[in-house]
Amino acid sequence: MAICSLVYPFLAKLIINRYVPQSDVTMIWVLALSLLAIYVTKAALEFVVQYWGHIAGTFVQKDMRRDLFRHIQSLPFSYFDKHKTGSIMSRIVNDLFEISELAHHGLEDFLTSAMTMIGAFILMAINNIWLTLISFALIPFMILFAVKRRKAMSGAFKKSREETSKINARVESSISGIRVSKAYTAEETEKKRFDDSNAEFQRARSKAYKQMGIFDSGMGLFSDLLYLVVLIAGALFRVYGYIDNGEFTAFILYITVLLGPIKVIVSLYQQIQDGMTGFKRFSELMAIEGEKDDPEAVDVDTLKGDIVFDNVTFAYKEFEGEEKSEDEIEVASKGNVLENFSLKIAAGSTVALVGESGGGKTTICHLLPRFYETDGGKITIDGIDTRKITLKSLRKNIGMVAQDVFLFSGTVRENIAYGDMTADDERIIEAAKNANIHDFIMSLPNGYDTEVGERGVLLSGGQKQRISIARAFLKNPPILILDEATSALDNITEMQIQEALNKLCVGRTTLVVAHRLSTVKKADEIIVLSGKGIDERGTHEELMRNNGFYAKLYNYQLRT
């Protein structure tokens, strides 16, 4: 491609100097057809570079995205506590695009531009070295100006993108909370907040366009000066007989050929910056250690469910550099959530965890399947340290039904099948019947093939909860964790779901976290937790007779 670009000025010089004065029409047509063949060849090469180069880029993206996604799947819960979904998405999409663009265009643009500039310099020097040096004298200043202004323009547009992000967040927040703003007649407040964000965006965009204007006008001026220098110097060289008309014309044409590669190399500087920044962020994420099994860890089949927490100590780690909410900072600053915590849960029994917020109830549930690792002590199941069990086989033995149900975009069938991807329709329907959701599913337009929408938006809270219970029935684990599974539901729906949960708990070791004490009255043991550890323990009747914190809280809830 670079060589093809250099042919035209050379042939133009040949035609002007030799075949026009000789009136050799035949050779003019021969050179014209030769030039046409060269242009067709260049077009074919351009297609190869553009098509196959971009195809290579998509393969780079695909492989890196695959590796990155698999690595993200292996990262511990603590990573997702510290990083927002948008930040992770940006690394998977935007960063990898910048890397693939650099991998493809970077080398291609650099080689093509460098070859074109070197070739042009050689051909111009063959004609006249002094005019060539005069012509090239302005180019270093042009490149220096372009690099500096490009950097300033990049910073301005980065600020503009930040303001765009803020205005998008403001719009999303306002639309999501439109019911609240209307209920509290806060429309004017929202308008003012949006106007402020909009004004900041306009100012940032204006600065960006100012830098773009300086860059474009400056590059235009340098290009015009380059033409002017070659025109005046070439004219003087022609007047004094140092070059002929064909060489003069070729010099003008070579300057035109030169300007394109210069602009490409200038833009390549920014492309390298973006690509290397993306690659650095990719490398940083890939360097984060994922969840790993202990070298001595073993696969277990079906556990019985004898659980022992033995002097367990745990604290949420401090947040390093990334985005964090006030709630996350508060949790991280409290120190140890659990300290020398011990608890035994017999196989097949139901143990309820109740008490004040921040006592570690949900933390206990998260430590059992090793979503987080303990800082001290150990947790055993059937006498085996959970760290000596492979994560996959450990989590296969544990089912969870949480307050915040997550449904994947897809069908009802696909969401229930998450409990066991190998399950056939008969088992899926049986699980739905056990969760008291089958009749509702059959009333849907497409039955089990009905789409639930993003995060299950087309279903009510109770319906989503029963689908999550159906998942647990399908998984059929020996150990079950119910983390506030009914706290966000109305009383009637809660009673319906509690019936399904009671059926689910039969024959399993069950750990229940609940704020509504009426739902744990039948538990084999109730553990009352505070920031200091276990305050009370016993059956509902025993705790009521003790007339302690549990009894007071139960009576208070009963009255309200």
SSE inventory with pairings:
Blueprint: H1 2-19, H2 25-74, H3 77-82, H4 85-127, H5 129-137, H6 139-176, H7 178-183, H8 187-239, H9 245-287, E1 307-315, H10 326-332, E2 336-345, E3 350-355, H11 361-367, E4 376-381, E5 384-385, H12 391-396, E6 398-402, H13 412-416, H14 425-434, H15 438-443, H16 461-475, E7 479-483, H17 491-505, E8 509-513, E9 525-530, E10 533-538, H18 540-546, H19 549-559
Parallel strand pairs: 3-8, 3-9, 6-7, 7-8
Antiparallel strand pairs: 1-2, 1-4, 4-5, 9-10
Helix pairs in contact: 1-2, 1-4, 1-9, 2-4, 4-5, 4-9, 6-8, 6-9, 8-9, 14-16, 16-17, 18-19
Description:
The protein is an alpha/beta fold. Among the domains are: 1-128 and 270-291, ABC transporter type 1, transmembrane domain (ABC transporter transmembrane region fold); 129-242; 407-476, Rossmann fold, CATH 3.40.50. Helices cover 63% and strands 11% of the residues.
* Strand content bin: 5-15%
Strand element count: 10
What level of helicity do the residues show? 55-70%
CATH architecture level-2 label of the domain at 1-128 and 270-291: Up-down Bundle
Low-pLDDT windows of residues: 319-333
Q: What are the secondary-structure elements, in order, as H or E?
A: HHHHHHHHHEHEEHEEHEHHHHEHEEEHH
Q: What kind of sheet is the major sheet? A: 6 strands, mixed
CATH secondary-structure class of the domain at 1-128 and 270-291: Mainly Alpha
First-residue to last-residue Cα separation: 81 Å
* Average pLDDT, all residues: 81
Strand order of the largest sheet: 6-7-8-3-9-10
